[in-house]
Amino acid sequence: MAGGIEIRPAHFPGRAPIDAYGNGGFRFAEMSHRGSLLCLPSGIHGWDVTDPSQLSVDNFTKILEQAADIEFLLIGMGDSMRVVPKELKAALKEAGISVDPMSTGAAVRTYNIMLSESRAVAAALIAVEG
User: What is this structure's pTM?
Assistant: First the structure.
């Protein structure tokens, strides 16, 4: 018998459209996740960013590690669009990734469309309460 519950980082090992967002989380692949998400070629990962003012290059390590498989990065900034910090934008550009900030709702819709077209897209989605 196991020695207890094992807590692992949230990760879905595949690509899937986002079915719903709001109430502080997301639904995808018949599952739900409370908190923000990174939707990458390696799968969907939990992301500890809760506010667009927290964005830094350090928050995008997983994205930069997979840059060879990502052409477009959609950043869902929460309830409204914000400017991407200059250092982050420069790091993504150097890695060959085009970045497009927008509200989380717009990012989810755009991600789903680009995913259905088999585009090299990734998304960093900050959860919204509404």
Answer: 0.90
